[in-house]
Amino acid sequence: MSAPLLEVQNLKLYYPVKVRKNALFSEKGFVKAVDDISFTVNQGETFGLVGESGCGKSTTGKTIVKLLRPTEGHILFEGKDIFAPENKADLTTRIQIIFQDPYSSLDPRFTVGRCIAEPMVVHKIGTPKEREERVRQLMADVGLRPEHYTKYPHEFSGGQRQRIGVARALALNPSLIVCDEPVSALDVSIQAQILNLMQDLQAKYSLTYIFISHNLSVVKHLCDRIAVMYLGNIVEIAGKNDLFDHPSHPYTNALLDAIPVPDPEIPTMQEMLEGDVPSPMNPPAGCCFHTRCKKACERCSREKPALREIAPGHQVACHLAE
Ligand code: SF4
């Protein structure tokens, strides 16, 4: 088997915060947004990252595109550390991102042509004429009309703005695109169009995607392998079919049971979660899920379960998984 395109090794990202002790004193604390996660992404696949809001999936994605710097750990792209200064020029253009919000991720002062050309301008790629040709080609690829070139973002609907965001992500001809909830801000009727467009572009440009979402139906439709995150940890990684047919972590089971089923005869929510996610400033000892897990035993509150393989390609962080 060929080497993975991306390797995330023991990644930690802690945000420093001040915790007030009393009227006079405060001490330094940390929000543990991502707490020692490792995974690989293979060339050409769509790798899903799922979990509740605040589980660390977007922080992971932003670290992979170097918008955030890790506290510890390494991210290797084609075997090279993306944060090593000697790899900066080589790797920065190879990994791009599609943001969640197509309204705030485009500069309202730029025309569509300038929005899409901006990465090439920043990286000093091509002449103005070459950039315009590339932008017009990308606009055609994402379904925008030639006359849109001189229009401004406010003149477009959410779906069209996300097409501009997709074109901008493609401008530097990347190998890997981090898709950070790219359809969750769109109407349901538009979501399918954007997802189909992303699949067409993946085939056309041999792209690899990391697809971040809290919508398991979308992830099931799009992804080859999926990692489930909870409180900054990865609790399960498996191929799509394995994960949906044989979920092995109690949290994954609860997430799958929460998917709405459009049939009142079918019982749902059998494993409905109770309680809130603990604070990432003060995560529980042992298994990060033990405060909400119905199967928790004494060992779970004292010993953190390692992510271990229970079947080929299927890893679970639970003492009871087999
Ligand atoms: Fe639940 Fe224990 Fe497994 Fe954690 S290790 S998921 S608390 S059974």
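qc> The chain is about 30% helix and 25% strand.
qc> done
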